[in-house]
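During the reporting period the student researcher (J.K.) took over the structure-prediction task from the postdoctoral fellow and processed the backlog of single-chain submissions. One of the processed entries is reproduced below for the supervisory committee.
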Amino acid sequence: MVTWRGGDLDRLVDEAHARLVGEVVRRLTSLRWDVRVEVTYSEYGERGSIDVLGARPDLLAVVSIEVKSDLTVIEATVRKSDEKDRLVRRTLTRDRFGFTPRSVGRLLVLPATTAARRRVRDSTITLATAFPSRGDAVRSWLRRATGDLAGILFVPNTSGGGVRRAPGGPKRIRRFNPRST
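J.K. obtained the following structure tokens:
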């Protein structure tokens, strides 16, 4: 078990995840998506939750979004995304929003950091197969939502007010001590 300043590690990870979820919700609602967060499911032994589930009933479209503040286990991320995609198509959209989708989007949202981009680049073959669309194609689909889409969207790490947050916590500044040199 890893600990760091008691529960601070959990709070730090949760805060980064919550900021990304908040930014995704803000973007989707500005595009007229009906949004739900942490949507749980339990069907045929498959259990879990979808970070962000959005619907556009006027377009018969739904998007299932997995938000990762740090992409660590790619195999599990791809496998759970496939599970969620099947359930969204089969029952979740009808149960939660009252319609059967014609267009389904499946997104992996990551922070727009060098480390996240490097992780995606290092796993190009797997991630390009599971989530082939990027950038403009994803943003365009979110505006029009026609056909199916699977993609990755990098989202800036914000403080919730649209201001980018510097990575890490407060920096400690020490006085210069000439005796320590």
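The committee noted the following: Helices lie at 8-30, 74-97, 114-122, 124-130, 135-144.
J.K. will present the remaining backlog at the next meeting.
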